[in-house]
Design brief:
The chain is α/β, with parallel strands linked by helices. About 25% of the residues lie in helices and about 25% in strands.
Length: about 260
Amino acid sequence: MNANAEIGIIGGTGVYDPNLLKDTQEIKITTPYGNPSDTIITGTLGQKKVAFLNRHGPGHKIPPHMVNYRANIHALKQLGVTRILAPTAVGSLVEEYRPSDLVILDQFIDRTSARTSTFYEKGQVCHISVADPFCEHLRTLLIETAKKLNYPVHDKGTQVCINGPRFSTRAESLIFKSWSAHTINMTLVPECVLAKEKEICYASIAMVTDYDCWKEHNVTIDDVINTMKQNEEKVKTLLTKTIESIPKERTCTCKDALKSALI
């Protein structure tokens, strides 16, 4: 396959614009785990070759619990992707993380169920370490870039990942808040874990759209979409500027994640 890419963007709610890229082509890939959510758009962004994948498929038809995360990550790996930037809409569990703020996540709490979270189901066991689930080098670049752009950004965040597709009950939201978590969404896990198993650097750009329902406001999809539209250009600029600054060589530990994980 001659459409190799260095960097992958997995677009979530509100970030579906492959027009960030020039000289694009559509790539259809079949993986051992089935088809990815959509055709992958490859192209150039500055001097970098980038692959864009729509997480929820054409027209946002795939709900979070039905996304074929293994096929998505495997397909990007097949194209040669070694780094993934993943914008995603999140609810806030703390007052100071306000709607339209950006959060560069550093931890997660998994509350999903019935999602396959490993490529190693038969023949070999993999105990991948996710003590630090995100690439620290990518996180640093995102934080530095956001600050240079004067965007409201939080450099740490623990995200609760729920199964969906429903939103939380108020009781659940208050429990998650009591865990000292900062944000909540439905797609982070197992996406970031599978990227780690493929030794791909992964960082999430969490875009706060609402206060979940702990603040006595019932979150609606209209809240999410309206805030996402306000943030769309900001996130595109952050992606563009960050990708331009990513060095060719990787010196992080992500590229060696399997060295002490396989039995």
